[in-house]
Amino acid sequence: MIGRGSNRYSTAAIAIQVAIALAIAGCSAAGHPMTTLAPKSNLAQWIQTLFIEVTVWDAIILAIVVFAFILAVFVFSSRVGEAAPASTASSDLGLEIAWTLGPTLVLVMISVPTIRTIFRSQPVVAPAGALEIKVVAHQWWWEFDYPDGAKTSNEPHIPVDRPIRLSLESADIIHSFWVPQLGGKRDVVPGQINELTFMATVPGMYPGQCAEFCGLSHANMRFRVFVDSPDDFAKWDRAQLAGPAAIPAGDLLASNGAKVFANSPCTTCHMIQGISKGYIGPDLTHFASRTTLAAGVLKNTPENVAKWIGNPQETKPGANMPALLLPGPKMNALVAYLEGLK
Amino acid sequence: MSDIADAHDGQTHHPGAATYLIIAAFLVILTAMEVTVFYVHALHPVLVPLLIVLAAAKFALVVMFYMHLKYDQWLLTGVFIFPLIIATLLLVSLILLFAYLSNHMAPIG
Amino acid sequence: MDIFGEHPSIPIGIAILIAIYLGACRAAGRKPTRRQAMWFAIAMGAILFTQTELDELADARLFSMHMLQHLMQTFVIPPLLLLGTPGWMLAPWMLSPPIKPIARLLTNPVVAFLIFSAVFVTAHFPPVFDRMCRDENFHIFLHLLFMAAGMLLWWPILSPVPELPRLSYPAQILYLFLLMIPMTAVAAPITLATKVIYPWYTEGAHGWGLTAIDDQVLGGLIMWIGQGTYLMIVFTFIFYKWSQREDRDVSVPPEATAPELRVLRSRRVAGS
Amino acid sequence: MAAQPKPLPAHQPSYLEGGGILGWLTTIDHKRVAVMYLVSALFFLALGGFEAMAIRVQLWRPDNHALSAAVYNAFFTMHGTTMIFLVVMPLLLGFFGNFLIPLQIGARDVAFPRLNALSFWLALVAGILLHLGWIRGGLPDAGWFGYANLTERYFTPGLAIDWWAIGLLVSGTSTVLTGLNFLTTIVAMRAPGMTYMRMPMFMWSLMVTSILILIAFPALTIGLIFLLFDRFFGTHFYVASAGATPILWQHLFWLFGHPEVYIMALPAFGIISEVIPTFSRKPLFGYPMMAYSICLIAFLSYGVWGHHMFATGMGPVADSAFAITSMLIAIPTGVKIFSWIATIWGGSLRMTTAFYFALGMILEFTLGGLSGIMHASAPIDLQQTDSYFVVAHFHYVLFGGVMFTIMAAFYYWWPKISGRMLGERLGKWHFWLTVIGFNLTFFPMHFLGMWGMPRRTYTYGADMGWTNLNQLETIGAFILAVAFLLFYVNIFKSLSSREERAPADPWDGRSLEWSTASPPPAYNFATIPQIRGRDAWWILKYGRAGSRGVAAYMSGQAPSQPQPDQPVSVEDIHMPAPSIFPLVLSLGVGVIGLGLIIDWYRIILIGAAVTVLSIVGMGFEYADFGEQSHDPEHAPSSGGVDVRKIGLWSFIGSECVFFASLISTFIVYKSRSLAGPGPKILNIPLTSFSTFVLLMSSLLMVLALAATQRGDKRWERIWLAGVVTFGLIFLGGQVYEFTSFYNEGMGLTTNLFSQSFFVLVGFHGAHVAIGVLWLSVLWVAAMTGKLGKSRALSVELAGLYWHFVDVVWIIIFTLVYLMQAVPGA
Fold first, then answer.
1. Sign (positive/negative) of CA torsion D741, D743, D748, D753?
2. Which of C35, C182, D541, D555 is in Cβ range 3.0-4.6 Å of C117 for a Cys bridge?
3. Is A274 within a domain?
């Protein structure tokens, strides 16, 4: 009875874990946009390679331990009351040296590529031709400043196959910049400039998130990185450098909205080039060119914009943006204006 | 209470007043040297190592003689030295880590 | 490997050491144990390797190899020599009246430790170190000094002369632990420096295609992590010997007569 | 001693009997203290478990709003804080450690029984302070790691963080006292013949853990003190805009935090090393290497704190150094796992619930250890840190490794503790549900982490593909909750059943605790045994360890028959008298904490008065107390060193780290002062004079001690008066110095230099002031003629403290004053 119980234990534990492993292998990275297992940059690729290497060593060690464990518990031991004489061995120098040296060798095998990757992934100076972007983390959104003066929030675009050098700064407390498919995280520490260097290799949209607990809405501090072809990037960059899109002639709703905006408290925090000068919140000059709002939490649709402006706390508890209580028509006008800022 | 005294008499052979006075003289001299070193400008390039050596000497004198570690059981030395080593390593590594960090500080303001 | 090439002093020195060793054996009319002879032979081999192969690399402006050389000279060769030298070889002259008090003072753990630390720290001070790189005679002198200081350092651990005793095992561990402070004080700043500290390494070609700064980091790490790991292994040996001794010290008094045993057993039954 | 030895009565009352409620409140019996730890820990375990369940419910589906962000953040903060400080440590150290140290080393109690009771009451007060947020100010919500500068008042106003910081300070004090007590006990109070190499492995682990505690906690204390200064007095220790860096908190916190992991794991390793040999009926395999690996793990644990900070940008060199040291820890850990397996190998196994849990621990902990190797590799860690992968990793270590061990320990030692067995049938259910629930809850987290799910997020998007596994985990968590419920039921059933008294030695155990009754009498052992080898009790039962004992066992030969009772006199057993002061003192401390937080000075004063009065009260109890540790039967194995001296030296060792943290902060910060007076303001002539005064006071101190030792009362008084006077002169100088700085425009909050200077030098000054008070008391005693030759130790202890304060000043004088011209590092 007792013996069977232990048998059941190991089979149960192993079966569960194997089953989960298989189930998970079944789901591809496609359904997991933030997976670390589908590298899309050189940095992520290096880490992935290292990860696989270490995992293989880990698996070998695990196999040895489980094998020894099973032999010890089920094969080379007796149960109380059985006749087999109990062993009294309490030491074996050879064995002990073996299981000290074995792991040591494995660690040497792991540490060499580890250190190589550490130095390779943290170059002291930016690689030649790198695009240097300043990233400022705020509670709870991201600001991206490009060297040519372009400015955006939460949805940066970068060119493919060109080295990117991010210099990370914080406006308030510690955050952490993480786009899993593009590489490991780097903390954003107030008073300190941290760097992150990588080169994206596949165009696409890669979601990221703040990874260091930063207060109430830490969970709502998301963003998206768009990796563009060089042409697309140049186009996007040009558009960002231009002023706000002109309101189409005859679009009364939008031009009303522009007036609502100009007279609202929004202007104290938000910038729309040529119209307002606030800098506490995200720059809204090209608001409509972004696919999401509220730091990646909501899709950028008119309903969501209205919902966000009317009650930011519902979407993002603790957000610094006050609720703007506008009567329906005014809100519609404002939303129409904002959604026109391509 | 008597057993305390017994245990005590049995365990320590503390040095006499003469030793204490000599140590005190050394301490005073070392302190005077420290202050002198501080005021001699020519010595400033080697100020840090010099001061560290002098302070370490004073430290060792007090601990070994006034705190009787030289005379007491090694157990007490162990209980003290191990944390002391850790504390020293901690001090050194923190200073070095922050020295690196200070190259990456954002301009203040 | 051209043994007699640049530095004839090395084979000559080794030959002299061997001659002294054999001469002392003959004078005493005793032979070292097989094990001691083996250790001594290894020590000679280690000296030869350190002073020729490693030295060439170190002369090729490889700071890291120079650090490895220093580690060998202070941490490897002296213990080997102490293991390889029988106590009866040293005792007669070390315990002779004029030398004995000096030997006693120098092999005192505190003194030995301080001397070694002072030598090691001073030698890595940039002006001193740089002069060593440029002045061959000073270089030889410092390397001999390292080995001598190393002998003192390891004496309290491996003393072959019972009259100048070893430390107790736990004290040995503590003693070597304390060694981590001066070693770290030298190795850490070298490793973490952002500039090349010793100008000699920036002048002229650099071996192995390393940059001077990478070489410096590597050298610092060899000294820092290398000595740490080495000491860790030594701790393991000491601890093992300690545990074996404590095991052996078991003296089993006749059980039947031990009164407290009877009491214990009665206690046990009373409780059940 | 006693003229007429009275034999022990046939029935010896167990430690649980008698005394009533007051008996428990005033108890200083290590076993009763342990039981009180147990009760509070089981309560907090339920609370922490409830918080965990709430977290899992919230994560059941994406965009869930069952809990608000605020409540979720508070719950994961309190779950971590509670489980670490109020459950695992109290269970491992307070409960099992306290109960078993004297029993396993053959002693009557711990070295400082009243301090032990004080530790418990302080721990309880800390637990209460941490939870007062339920009543006022909200629960702490900045994570158990409380990263600055989120914890600054500007970002987290309100009382929550104040409760948290003060609660942890009190808890840390309690733990340090425990560490001091345990270390002294194990070092000095082992039964005769029990060398270090004959101690049970649990004792090895607790000895090393105590050292870890003494060295690790001061760093946390300093970190918290800076935080409280920032919050209450407006300093800027973690404020970037003032030139400081919040990274300082991370260094201090992880300097404590990583050793803390081993403070929890090492005792677990020790317990497993007790359980496995017993149920395998074999001696522990590779005992010396097991002991050594514990030491090595402990030492290495100080060189690895940086692996929590790879993402903070420490630079490639520091990353490499921390990565390699972290990997090194795997070697001794591997030695332990292989040695446990080798112990089982060839054994005669007895498949009890305790053994099941021990076997489970080996496998689950191996998984946690292996994912740990991944985190040690810095680049991989950058993908995994702060993701659910890490949550999986440390739950495999802390639940799979430590909680499984605690359960094994419960089933193993419960008979000894309560005198009753835990149900084996229910136990097996408990075990299987735990295994299934645990793996179902935490194994999928590896994958969630690899799929990019960050930690500490109260909600997640539906498009991330994390939903299914989260639901699986929540189901697992409920299974786990049922398992815990069964555990509580099992305890309850065992306590309420009238029958099934546990025998003294139900498992055919190997160590001394099984030699005494279950539950043991208040004095543990009627006679302190003579130890002849490892597995002391096994040898007593079967003869020398090894073939003979097992041969005797295998041939069915029962242990030798009991001999007639040896007459032992009850009067020979001196047990210390109970004391109410530990409880009162802790209450005082609690009231101070309360007053500090709600900012009501009268309450602080009341608390301070109670605290001081109870310290004085404890002092007057001293005469009774002193005898205990000098029980002649306790012939200490440490060659006659007084336990109080060992205790004080351990405290001094701990203080080294305390001041090292302060000094390094000063050195790091002094050259970053922005405005106002900088280091040039320091007055070297004045402090040279102060240094001289302090050095001379040390001289007078040793002279006073010498006078006391030779019974010279006249000079004893004179020298002591001299020390006190010199101390006062030093303090006067400091007051003058501080005042003049203040007049020159350098206040506490002026700049980084001033705040780190004032805190460092101020704390040293506080130490001097305490020393002056202590010596004044001694001086009064000397004047009234109460400080005779026999009390020389009291003078020696005060002297040791005084000299230590002096050497700290030697360092401060050099590093702070004389090196002012040298820029940081």
1. negative
2. C182
3. yes
CB within 8 Å: B78 and C170: yes
Alpha-carbon torsion angle D585, D586, D591, D597, nearest 10: 130
- Asked if residue A117 and residue A46 are part of one domain, the reply reads yes
Q: Is any Cβ of chain D less than 8 angstroms from the Cβ of A46?
A: yes
Q: Do A117 and A135 sit in the same domain of this protein?
A: no
How many angstroms away from the CA of A214 is the closest CA of chain B? 20
Residue A300 placed within a domain: yes
What is the residue range of A157's domain?
Answer: 131-229
CA-closest candidate to residue A17, choices C50, D440, D320: D440
Which chain C residues touch D288 with a CB distance below 8 Å?
239-240, 243-244
Q: What are the residue ranges spanned by the domains of chain D? A: 20-496, 665-821
Most C CBs within 10 Å: which of B53, B89, B90, as the mutation test of the C interface?
A: B89
State the CATH number of the domain containing residue A139: 2.60.40.420
| Per-residue pLDDT tens over the stretch C153-204 | 999 999 888 888 888 888 898 888 888 888 888 888 888 777 888 888 877 7
Pick from A174-178, C267-271, D493-497 the range whose average pLDDT is largest.
A174-178
Residues 6 or more apart whose CB falls under 8 angstroms from that of D717 comprise D779, D782, D783
* Distance, CA of A232 to CA of A238 (rounded, Å): 10
Place D316 in a pLDDT band, splitting at 50, 70 and 90: confident
Answer whether D331's CB lies under 8 Å from A103's CB: yes
Indicate whether this complex's ipTM tops 0.90.
no
Q: Tell me, yes or no, if B81 comes closer than 8 A to chain C by beta carbon.
A: yes
**What is the side-by-side strand order in the sheet with A157-159?**
A157-159, A222-228, A204-209
> CB-based contact (8 Å) between B78 and chain C?
yes
Determine the pLDDT at residue C2: 47
Q: Are residues A42 and A148 in the same domain?
A: no
CATH (one of 1.20.120.80, 3.90.950.10, 3.30.565.10, 3.40.30.10) for D665-821: 1.20.120.80
D554, pLDDT greater than 50: no
Domain assignment of residue A217, yes or no = yes
Hey, what amino acid is at D476?
Answer: G
Residue A316 lies in a domain: yes
From the candidates A32, A125, A198, which should be mutated to test the interface with D, based on the most D CB atoms within 10 A?
A32
Question: D20-496 is classed in which CATH architecture?
Answer: Up-down Bundle (1.20)
* Range from A83-87, C221-225, C228-232, D284-288 carrying the lowest mean pLDDT: A83-87
H-assigned helices in D634-681: 643-670
Distance between C172 CA and the closest CA of chain D, angstroms: 15
Domain spans of chain B, in order of start: 1-72, 73-109
Inter-chain touch C171–B85, beta carbons under 8 Å: no
Residues of A in Cβ contact (< 8 Å) with B108: 191
β pairing state of A194-198 and A164-170: antiparallel
Does A317 sit within 8 Å of D356, measured CB to CB?
no
User: Do A36 and A101 lie in a common domain?
Assistant: yes
From the centroid of its chain, how far is CA D174?
Answer: 7
C254 CA: distance to closest CA in chain D (Å): 10
* Cα-Cα end-to-end distance for chain D: 62
CB contact under 8 A, B90 and D661: yes
For D363, name the nearest residue in chain A, comparing CA atoms only.
A66
D20-496 and D665-821 agree in CATH topology: no
Domain ranges of chain C: 9-245
Res. D103: pLDDT tops 60: yes
CA distance C1 to chain D (A): 35
Q: How far is D816 from chain B (nearest CA, A)?
A: 11
Q: Neighbours of A (≥3 Cβ pairs closer than 8 A)?
A: B, D
